[in-house]
Amino acid sequence: MTQSGIRDGSGDTEEHGRADGLLVPVPDEDGAPFFGYAALGELRVQTCADCAEPRFPPRPCCPHCQSFESEWIRTSGRGRIWSYVVPHPPLLPAYAAQAPYNVILVELVDAPRIRLVGNLVAAADAALDSVDPARIRINAPVRAVFHQAAGGVVVVRWVLERP
């Protein structure tokens, strides 16, 4: 990610606005592999090659053993909703049209200390408001799906394991 971690999806920065106005991540050198694997339909987590501790967000040095060696381990793509929020009111105009939408925090089954932020949707390419917020439950099992956002970046979204 860049310092701000997001862009408008047009290849430009936030100040230029995108047709749909939604924000997309800007991969930096450390996070680029995460998005590269997502583009292949794989959810991988950076893991220390020396002590085997997974880490997210990606960074050059292991916070546990200070090693600079890492590898990207494929996960099952399964998790559980650890927390969520339904923003009120939407902070950006483009998101107002999608309200009420959700933002969830998913704890990975394969790496319980790793939590990823995303949206719970009905399908990979569904709108952000495709799941009724009343259906969201803490601990609900979810699985990763992959959505190509503007600018070619593939982002991880989540669907319920048992719809």
Automatic annotation (TrEMBL):
It comes from Streptomyces milbemycinicus. Residues 72-147 form the ChsH2 C-terminal OB-fold domain. It holds the Pfam family OB_ChsH2_C. PANTHER family: BLR3430 PROTEIN. Transmembrane segments: none annotated. Signal peptide: none annotated. Residues 9-19 have a biased composition (Basic and acidic residues). Residues 38-69 form the ChsH2 rubredoxin-like zinc ribbon domain. Residues 1-23 are annotated as: Disordered. This is Zn-ribbon domain-containing OB-fold protein.
